[in-house]
Amino acid sequence: MKTASSSNACQEQASRETAHSVADYIEKRAGQNQEPARPKSASTVVLVSGKGEDFAVYLMRRTRQSSFGGAFVFPGGLVDRADMDTSLAEGGEQLAKKCALRLCEPDLAPDLAIGLFAAGVRETFEEAGVLVGAGNGNQPLSEVPDAWDLRSKMEAGQISLKQLLLSLGLTLEPDLLLPFSRWITPPEEARRFDTRFFVARHIAGQRTSPNCNELTEGVWISPGKALEAHSEGRMKLFPPTFATLWELNLCRDAQEVMDLAQKRVIRPIRPKTFADNRGVGVLLPHDSEYGVGGFAVENNALPSRLLLTEKGWRPAH
Predict the structure, then answer these.
(1) I need a surface site. Which of 14, 103, 190, 283 has the fewest CB within 10 A?
(2) What is the pTM for the complete model shown?
């Protein structure tokens, strides 16, 4: 059974403290809404594996000095210019149009459409050490030869994703990554991201391990246990990760997650901050008080607003 006990960690662990300071949250946002920053395109990959008691996702803990310091996140990061190369996948611009449609963004520029998928592949390899979304004719690679050496070279900027794939005789296979959601950071945040979330099956034979430059540990854990650890203040999560885990916890296995993703209509989620007598939090688009830009969701079990407490984010009823 894959649980939190199956984690692997870097030698220099970050502090185990998981305090969530509401005061810090408010202070960081004071006066930040004068000129909203433009969101940067990013990709995140939710690795899923198993069924029943073995159903698990892969979470990684950021160092205190990195973005989302101290929080557990899915592998991911910003889209690089080198990711935006339509020759990464067979089919070129025609495939890029297909990628844009799968993202529910038909007007997306071809290079960015490819780049979002490519960034997810690259970041998952750099951060977690596994290669997803790449193969030969939709056949994923069960084992990556010289994975650690290639990963080190990619981290050092010595090889690009394109060079990596060429060396392995592979191409980008977007069909192996399924779009799941899109989160855009609120305008009052100093650093903003336009992040597309993908889901992908973990490939048996590829060993996950955290990149020790930005991460302190990696863990295979069931969505339910991750939410439980968060509620007890042992696992810091930000709203997009919290909401994603909440949805995944309604699934019974990895296949159900993939089936769910196949049917998704992706609409941008733009959380809106609010404050009431209980504290501060965020409204999601399906909340009755969200206003312009709100939309209904098929999954009524998903909380529509989250409140920040000293132990982390909680559904606010």
Answers:
(1) 190
(2) 0.89
